[in-house]
């Protein structure tokens, strides 16, 4: 998911930026579970959450992908796709919890 680039050489900012972004996403999902927020309302708020952390991660991840040989266009597409997929997975975890009462993974 968001750590796809972690298996390869990284820029120095990559790991701290990824950790901060994932930590923010996790905390937001936990809040949505704890408050038992309706999934649609959660998704709307979640889409606006962690934007500063996301921007730092995106910048570091694009730089890392380019360092690994991708063009800027390829790097942007890969990173933006990873971020979108990651957000979908986190939102689905919150929804699953609300529906089943079981904590995902």
Q: How would you sum up this structure, described in words?
A:
With 105 residues, this protein is mostly helical. It has one domain. The protein is built from four helices and no strands. The protein starts with 13 loop residues before the first helix and ends in a 5-residue tail after the last helix.
pLDDT averaged residue by residue = 90
* Total beta strand runs: 0
Succession of helices and strands: HHHH
| Oligomeric state as shown | single chain
Give the radius of gyration.
15 Å
Number of domains: 1
Helix and strand composition category: mainly alpha
Summarize the structure.
71% of the residues lie in helices and 0% in strands.
Short key terms for the protein model shown above:
105 residues, mainly alpha, 4 helices
Helix-strand layout with pairing:
Elements: H1 14-34, H2 39-46, H3 51-67, H4 72-100
């Amino acid at each position: 998911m968001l750590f796809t680039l972690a298996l390869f050489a990284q820029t120095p900012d990559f790991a701290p930026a990824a950790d901060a972004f994932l930590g923010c996403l996790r905390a937001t999902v936990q809040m949505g579970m704890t408050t038992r927020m309706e999934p649609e309302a959660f998704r709307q708020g979640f889409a606006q959450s962690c934007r500063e952390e996301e921007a730092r991660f995106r910048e570091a991840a694009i730089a890392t992908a380019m360092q690994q040989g991708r063009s800027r266009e390829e790097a942007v597409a890969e990173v933006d796709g990873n971020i979108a997929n990651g957000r979908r997975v986190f939102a689905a975890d919150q929804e699953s919890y609300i529906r089943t009462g079981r904590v995902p993974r």
